[in-house]
């Protein structure tokens, strides 16, 4: 019997999840479509005044990214829970937190990364000046993995429930507040020419913190949900 | 110490002990509450700027303290419950959450009643108001999760994890909101040098804070005892008690 190492196991999990995602392309496309539609509803609901749009752009883009993240988050463990492969994951001899982290990474590659690619497009729709764009993208690069990591804890807690969608947002949205504040704060500061290094450092620190703690909490939560 | 700790974790012992403590706690809570209310509403002077509106702080400030204190208690109980698997701690968290949410709600409402004459508006997106509001959402999140999961054992453990995650997040949320915007007056009691509140106001405030704390203890014990009877309804000691 040949044993596989931890890194091989993690790679296998990532590969499997990516493969599954690409076989169901609509599930990748749906959060992106949601993101585009939600953001483009805002100018319709208000005056399409370029000045106003520019002011609300970071907030709108970030809130839409939060909601798109939460909607796609439910998929993270759902199908694995239903077909039993999640239990196999829990039973495997490798540390569950690392396997969970690989799942989160795969999930982020499929749902978080496309939002980052789309963000400049939405920025153009909102008349966001070109010099603010890099800051917006950096905040999304630092922030969306954070959303996935923190959201995974909530998803793991409710994986056994049949209808968890609204509940998930109740659990997780309050925890997203710091990300939202620092990310939109950075973009807003950049647009008036203030330094943004502080906010970006804090986002980075939060990302490191959640990278270390969130997989552990998610693994513990999965064990409880499956017990 | 450890023996006592384990004894406290045993439901029948906890039930008897809390039953014996209850009248003492209840009466001292009532005394403190009366003393604090008389001190706060009658004896203490009106503020030179805020007039009689200042008296709302004797409710507002202790409620705000309690809202944070109860979440801390829940977090400690959650850690104890997850580490030592003590049944009582699950019961304590479940019993605390609605009380904590109520205190948070009272703090928000009294704060907004005070804000209308003082700041001229019911609500401002000020740092402390916002973090108090988010704390309320955290309480609601816990309660929603707890009611959504049917198996009480799983609900208790899942809730404990959520409470701990929230506890890690609370300081982060607090400071993020603080840097985001603040209008609120700074802390006036817990300063390490001299408190900037006058003694005639400080004493009723502290009396009220003590009364609120005891009120919480009495209520949480009462709720925990009921919850315990329901959960242990099939065990011998409950049958003995009922028969």
Rounded radius of gyration of chain A (Å) = 18 Å
Question: What fraction of residues of chain A sit in β-strands?
Answer: under 5%
| Strand residues, percent of chain B | under 5%
The largest sheet of chain A, given as strand count, sense and whether it forms a barrel, is: none
Number of helices of chain B: 8
Give me the count of strands of chain A.
0
Q: How would you describe the shape of chain B? A: globular
| Biggest pleated-sheet summary of chain B | none
How many beta-strand elements of chain B? 0
Succession of helices and strands of chain A: HHHHHHHHHH
Relative helix content of chain B: over 70%
What is the share of helical residues of chain A?
over 70%
Low-pLDDT segments, ≥5 res of chain A = none
How would you describe this structure to a colleague?
The complex is a heterodimer of chains A (227) and B (243). With 227 residues, chain A is mostly helical. Chain A has helices spanning 6-23, 25-45, 50-73, 75-83, 85-91, 96-125, 133-157, 165-172, 177-191, 197-226. The model of chain A has no long low-confidence stretch (mean pLDDT 89). With 243 residues, chain B is mostly helical. Chain B is 79% helix and 0% strand. Chain B has helices at 2-8, 11-43, 57-84, 87-119, 127-148, 152-180, 199-231, 236-242. The mean pLDDT of chain B is 84. The interface between A and B is medium-sized, with 28 and 26 residues.
């Amino acid at each position: 019997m040949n044993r596989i190492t931890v890194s091989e196991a993690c790679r296998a999990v990532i590969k499997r999840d990516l493969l599954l995602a690409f076989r169901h392309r609509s599930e990748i496309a749906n959060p992106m479509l949601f993101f585009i539609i939600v953001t483009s509803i805002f100018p319709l609901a208000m005056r399409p005044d370029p000045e106003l749009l520019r002011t609300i752009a970071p907030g709108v883009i970030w809130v839409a990214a939060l909601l798109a993240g939460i909607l796609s988050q439910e998929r993270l463990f759902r199908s694995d829970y239903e077909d039993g492969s999640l239990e196999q994951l829990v039973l495997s001899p490798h540390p569950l937190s690392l396997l969970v982290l690989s799942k989160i990474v795969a999930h982020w590659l499929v749902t978080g990364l496309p939002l980052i690619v789309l963000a400049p497009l939405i920025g153009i729709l909102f008349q966001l000046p070109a010099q603010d764009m890099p800051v917006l993208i950096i905040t999304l690069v630092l922030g969306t993995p954070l959303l996935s990591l923190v959201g995974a804890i909530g998803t793991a807690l409710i994986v056994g429930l049949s209808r968890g969608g609204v509940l998930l947002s109740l659990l997780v949205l309050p925890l997203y507040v710091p990300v939202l504040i620092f990310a939109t704060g950075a973009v807003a500061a950049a647009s008036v020419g203030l330094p943004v290094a502080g906010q970006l450092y804090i986002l980075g620190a939060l990302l490191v913190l959640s990278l270390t703690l969130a997989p552990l909490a998610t693994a513990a939560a999965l064990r409880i949900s499956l017990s | 110490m450890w023996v006592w700790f384990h004894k406290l974790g045993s439901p029948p012992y906890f039930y008897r002990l809390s039953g014996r403590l209850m009248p003492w706690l209840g009466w001292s809570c009532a005394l403190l509450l009366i003393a604090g209310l008389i001190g706060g509403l009658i004896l203490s002077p009106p503020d030179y700027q805020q007039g009689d509106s200042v008296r709302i702080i004797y409710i507002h400030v202790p409620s705000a303290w309690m809202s944070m204190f109860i979440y801390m208690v829940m977090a400690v109980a959650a850690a104890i419950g997850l580490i030592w698997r003590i049944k009582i701690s699950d019961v304590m968290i479940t019993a605390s959450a609605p009380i904590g949410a109520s205190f948070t709600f009272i703090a928000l409402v009294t704060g907004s009643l005070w804000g209308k004459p003082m700041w001229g508006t019911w609500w401002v997106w000020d740092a402390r108001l916002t973090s108090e509001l988010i704390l309320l959402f955290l309480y609601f999140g816990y309660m929603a999760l707890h009611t959504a999961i049917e198996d009480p054992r799983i609900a208790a453990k899942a809730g404990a994890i959520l409470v701990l995650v929230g506890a890690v997040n609370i300081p982060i949320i607090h400071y993020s909101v603080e840097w985001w915007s603040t209008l609120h007056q700074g802390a006036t009691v817990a300063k390490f040098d001299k408190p900037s509140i006058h003694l005639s106001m400080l004493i009723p405030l502290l009396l009220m804070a003590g009364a609120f704390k005891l009120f919480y203890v009495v209520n949480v014990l009462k709720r925990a005892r009921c919850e315990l009877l329901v959960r242990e309804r099939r065990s011998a000691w409950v049958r003995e008690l009922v028969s």
